[in-house]
Structures are given as structure tokens and as C-alpha cells.
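lol so apparently i was supposed to do this last week
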Amino acid sequence: MKPILIFDSGVGGLTVLRELRVLAPDRRYVYVADDAAFPYGAWEEPALLKHMVALFGDLIRAYEPEITVIACNTASTLAINALREAYPNEIFVGTVPAIKPAAERTRSGVVAVLATPGTVKRQYTRDLIRDYAERCHVRLVGSSHLAKLAEVYMREGFVDEDAVAAEIAPCFIEADGKRTDIVVLACTHYPFLVNRMRKVAPWPVDWIDPAEAIARRARSLIGDEADTGAGEDIAVFTSGIADQAIRRVLKGFGLRVETRRD
Ligand code: DGL
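anyway here it is w/ D-glutamic acid bound
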């Protein structure tokens, strides 16, 4: 049976994998981290788009997925339409900032979208705000360091809380007696740090993690049969290098690291 491919630039997509496993435990998963190109947030758009379209040609050929989940906002907001055009026979599920649910849920009308610098710049993100959050005050916060801090945290179990506090500080605004009451986690790496964010936040807010909603969407697009084949779940790192620390993390997620097939 064909596997489900989950893609990210690093470990962030694991936040989506763990939700999808709950909904579709009998399926086989291939997790791909394009770590050779991490962080996606720092790339120029044309170069990243070209890189992704080429990379997906290889991945689709190698793993023949039933469905591909782009568990990365930075990648989806740039490339989801181009990927659907380039590979019309494939099913793609994207991950885009949860601006609509935040706009529906906010009481103060002040919402922050915490993302990579790439996602913050995207026209896709601006269009979501125009279409769904016109009546809200939306503060876009592009963080250059949080995805990297999450990578380090997952490998080493350590995170510099002062650095986390500095990265999230611009999300917290107060104007005309109203203050931020929702922070959208618009990078799949960030839910791994949410407890630290909660701890260092200047006041309590709701943190929206879209992983479960993405998993539900993916689940709705696949069949009900269980994969009874002997294949195990694997993780593929485009750098071809996965150190001991990351192998341990992936083992915890039930993934064996495999060298990339071309
Ligand atoms: N996990 C990715 C996202 O959801 C971003 C990490 C990166 O900058 O590569 O946007």
C-alpha cells in the first residue's frame, strides 16, 4: 500500500505526524526533512520554489505516496499551488497560518501570527488576512530564530528561555485598552516550544496549533483500509546526515532513519 508522505524543512512536521498517527494509526509513513536546505524561512522565494518543485519530483518518484502533507507553512504558502500544477496526479495537503480560526475566536480583536520571516512576507498570508481577518488587528511577527531553537530543543532538550521571550515579545501588543489574546503558531516547529512560550509570555493568550486540523483534513482524503504490509515508518534527511541525537528523537516518533532513494 502507498505510504503517507509528511514533509518539512526539519523536525517541525513531526507535530503533524503525531496527530495524523492518532487518526490513521494503521498507515505507513515516510517523513521527509529537507534539512540540507533548512531554514526555509531565510530563502528567497524564486530559489525556494524552484528547489521545492525539483525536490518533489524526486520524492514522488521514490516513495509514490498516496497523499503528501506539506507540514510547513513556509513551504506551503509559497509552493502549494505550484506543486499541484506540476504534479496534478498527486494529492497535497498544505499547512497555512490559522488566521481564519483566530479571527473567529478572538474576543479582543487583537491577534498575532508568529511565523518565519518567509511566511510573514508571503502574499498568501496577506491574502488570508484580507479575506478572513479584516475586522481584526493582526500583528505579523517574523522570527528568525525560533525554528532553530526548536531544532536544538528537540535534539538537546535545552532551550534558552530568554531567547524565546525575545522572539515572542513583538506578539504582545496593547492598544486602546485591548491586547493580544491569540497567537497563531504559523510554523510547525513552534508547538514544540509552546510550554516555554506560555511560561515567558507577558500575559496568558490562546496559542493556536493547526496540527490537528491538518491531520483531520489529510484523514478525510485517504481511504479506510489498514496497511497490512510489513513496511516500517521511515524518516529521510536530504542532507544524508542524521546524528545520534536526531536518530533518538525520531525513534521516539517510531521512525527509522533511511538514506534517501533517488
Ligand atoms: N517548519 C517550517 C514552517 O512551518 C519552518 C522552518 C524553516 O524556517 O525552515 O514554516
